[in-house]
Specification:
The complex is a heterodimer of chains A (497) and B (176).
Chain A (H helix, E strand, L loop, with lengths): L1 H13 L2 H19 L5 H12 L4 H26 L8 H12 L3 H34 L4 H18 L4 H16 L1 E2 L6 E2 L13 H19 L19 H23 L6 H14 L12 H24 L5 H12 L6 H6 L1 H22 L3 H5 L6 H20 L2 H19 L5 H23 L6 H4 L1 H28 L1
Antiparallel strand pairs in A: 1-2
Helix pairs in contact in A: 1-15, 2-4, 2-15, 3-4, 3-9, 3-13, 3-17, 4-5, 4-6, 4-12, 4-13, 4-15, 5-6, 5-12, 6-10, 6-12, 6-15, 7-8, 7-19, 7-21, 8-19, 9-17, 9-18, 10-11, 10-12, 11-12, 13-19, 17-18
Chain B lengths: L1 H12 L9 H21 L15 H22 L20 H17 L5 H15 L5 H22 L12
Helix pairs in contact in B: 2-3, 4-5, 5-6
The chains are: A mainly alpha (497), B mainly alpha (176).
Chain lengths: 497, 176
């Protein structure tokens, strides 16, 4: 009951005209950047951070959440019509979705993706609404040791899940942790790695790192090996409505995708990639039309798209209740909270309920807006795909330099941006995942803070991390997350010989 | 994406890798090691007050440097045994293509020009040139179209940011 009245209060915040406008701006932007290659929700939120600095926190966060959800919708459109996913969580959708489009059922694929995303997004937001308060009461008992253990778990999970090997994830992670260490140490006031440069005293801005690794690194990389052919967009023909059979096959897939996506999204497992993949495998196994898989089976679009959106809501559970980001976009939304002097976590539910619940309520609103934006207007979004590549990347760099320059109005930030851009290029060239670096850079300083707090409480006794049962079990899980895949890989390798 | 890649990797792992040194990967691993050394050396430049001896500002940087050194070392060994990284599959990227250094040099040149011009000639001039230059580097040869789009977009952004969002951008030689 308490939850319902809190949610009701949240809707009063989310439904004010101004906040509705922020949500609309957010979901529209999210759809656009989800469709465009080279730019995604994480980069967009980062670019908007300097702009929203002086705006109202609730409105800005509602907009960011809209971008996050919208990016999930937009990504599916390119997967289906162009066979090039605009966003990593939509890779699986391309498998069947593009085949459906080639067979002339592109409209049905778009419809099942959009409606499935809506169904899953709404159900998962509902789950978020009721799971979050439970998590909060649980999290209130956490001390610094538990928080530190939880963050280590997030680090290990992210490194072993993202990228092609744990070694590559770990390298990226330590690079990000290193970036986070630069600046004046908050607890002792000592300069660390500032090289005597005053601009580095406040540390390197998250915006510079995210824009450098994503926008600049990506542009360098694409330009270095630009493919000669631009993909061809398949025109959407026929009715946008699914026929009776397609509805019948979509429903169960949507629900299964939701039940798979939400719980997996709440775990620190790097966002939506794994749930979409698992949903695809599940649908393939359960389908009565196995022969259609690989030739455009609608379940193969419906399930993963639902899983993808449910996972997006799931990711918000640890972010809002524990302050723990498990995907790159979530990490940047955490940075957005910090920009407004807010720290997501159990106490935020008590100190600013109108903000947290307003944000949660706005997710329902945003999902509904996205359904309207994506079903009838999909033809409009598809035209974005006709923007010539040279102009697209020109625009990306224009906005990248603008966002970074407007942080402090200093060219020092631009120089840092280009250096980090070179690192971003090298990471792609040598196959290192970018997301662990971003999560580590944002979460690292918080982890260090909790680590030192825990040691201050235990008066320097390191055993505090393993003598507290909850913290000890989290550390064991963290170790398992790293070593089980390694062992599994080793066993698989031996079998193959 | 990650999973698809892992699957692919498992298939390829069965092939014996050529025992030649992967030169590019070797240089990259040395870079990671150098970064580790940088962080390790820096640890000793962080001043520690006696009261914080145990839980001071040095511990985390130390962990970071050890982590980078360890990862760099494993990468070095892998590179020496000839295990080269595969390029990341991405939209618009042809992983089999030879790197196009000429285009990259153009792009780098225009980025530096933008850096030089933004406070001297102002945002609109610098950004228009950057946009045009990026389009040129990406192979566009429709100079007039690109130029018009560049100026219109830069001007639009400039006015929205300075007039509506109250952000300061250098006006430069244009004087508005």
């Amino acid at each position: 009951m308490e939850t319902l009245s809190a949610l009701f209060e949240g809707f009063r915040v989310a439904l004010t005209p101004l906040n509705l406008l922020w949500a609309l701006v957010g979901v529209t932007l999210g759809t656009v950047v989800g469709i465009l290659p080279g730019i995604g929700p994480a980069l967009t939120v980062a670019l908007l951070l300097p702009v929203t600095y002086q705006l109202d926190p609730i409105g800005s966060l509602i907009m960011f959440a809209g971008i996050y959800y919208g990016g999930m919708y937009g990504g599916s459109t390119t997967s289906i019509l162009l066979n090039t996913p605009g966003e990593s969580a939509s890779v699986i959708t391309a498998l069947e979705g593009n085949k459906m489009a080639q067979r002339g059922r592109g409209a049905a694929a778009l419809a099942t993706a959009a409606i499935g995303s809506f169904v899953a997004g709404t159900l998962a937001t509902l789950a978020l609404t009721f799971v979050a308060p439970v998590m909060v009461t649980f999290a209130l008992r956490f001390g610094p040791a538990e928080y530190f253990a939880l963050m280590v778990l997030a680090f290990t999970a992210v490194t072993s899940v993202l990228g092609s090997s744990p070694l590559r994830g770990l390298t990226s992670l330590f690079f990000g942790l290193g970036l986070g260490v630069i600046g004046i140490d908050a607890q002792t006031g000592q300069a660390r790695y500032t090289l005597g440069i005053p601009e580095l005293f406040d540390g390197i801005s998250v915006v510079v790192v995210v824009v450098g690794l994503f926008a600049v690194g990506e542009t360098f990389y694409v330009l270095s090996r630009l493919s000669k052919s631009e993909g061809s967009v398949i025109a959407v023909k026929g009715s946008i409505w699914m026929n009776h059979n397609e509805w019948k096959r979509s429903w169960p897939a949507w629900l299964r995708g939701t039940f798979l996506g939400f719980p997996l999204g709440t775990l620190p497992a790097g966002g939506a990639e794994i749930p979409t993949f698992l949903s695809y495998m599940l649908e393939k196994r359960l389908s009565k039309h196995k022969e259609e898989f690989g030739n455009g089976a609608i379940e193969g679009v419906a399930g993963p798209e639902a899983a993808n959106n449910a996972a997006a809501a799931g990711v918000l559970v640890p972010l809002l209740t524990l302050g723990l980001p498990t995907s790159a976009t979530a990490a940047i939304i955490l940075a957005a909270f910090q920009q407004f002097g807010l720290q997501p976590g159990p106490t935020l539910f008590q100190t600013s309920p109108e903000l947290v619940w307003g944000l949660i309520a706005s997710l329902y609103v945003g999902n509904t807006m996205l359904l309207v934006l994506n079903l009838p207007l999909v033809g409009l979004w598809v035209r974005l795909l006709t923007i010539p590549r040279p102009l697209l990347y020109g625009g990306i760099l224009l906005f990248a330099t603008l966002g970074v320059y407007s942080l402090n109005g200093s060219t020092f930030d631009l120089v840092t941006l280009y250096l980090i851009g070179v690192v971003g290029y090298l990471m792609r060239r040598f196959d290192f995942p970018v997301a662990p670096a971003i999560i580590a850079m944002i979460l690292g300083p918080l982890a260090e803070q909790q680590f030192r707090r825990a040691l201050a409480i235990s008066q320097g006794d390191y055993s505090t991390f393993i003598t507290r049962p909850l913290s000890a079990s989290l550390f064991i899980i963290a170790l398992a997350v790293i070593f089980i895949p390694l062992i599994a890989r080793w066993v698989a390798k031996r079998r193959m010989r | 994406m990650a999973d698809a890649k892992i699957c692919v990797r498992h298939i390829f792992m069965a092939k014996p890798s050529t025992p030649r040194v992967a030169v590019a990967d070797l240089i990259f691993s040395l870079g990671v090691l150098a970064l580790g050394v940088f962080f390790l050396v820096g640890v000793f430049n962080i001043r520690v007050l006696p009261s914080y001896a145990n839980i001071g500002p040095r511990f985390f940087p130390f962990v970071v440097s050890l982590g980078l050194l360890l990862c760099g070392f494993i990468l070095l060994v892998r590179a020496l045994t000839g295990k080269a990284a595969q390029l990341q599959q991405e939209e618009n990227v042809d992983v089999t293509a030879k790197p196009n250094w000429r285009s990259l040099a153009f792009l780098a040149g225009f980025l530096l020009l933008h850096l030089f011009l933004i406070e001297r000639a102002g945002f609109i001039v610098a950004s228009s040139l950057l946009f045009w230059g990026v389009s040129y580097s990406f192979g566009s040869r429709r100079y007039w179209r690109d130029g018009i789009v560049a100026v219109l977009l830069s001007a639009l952004v400039y006015f929205v940011f300075t007039r509506f969002l109250n952000l300061n951008l250098p006006e430069g030689i244009l004087g508005f």
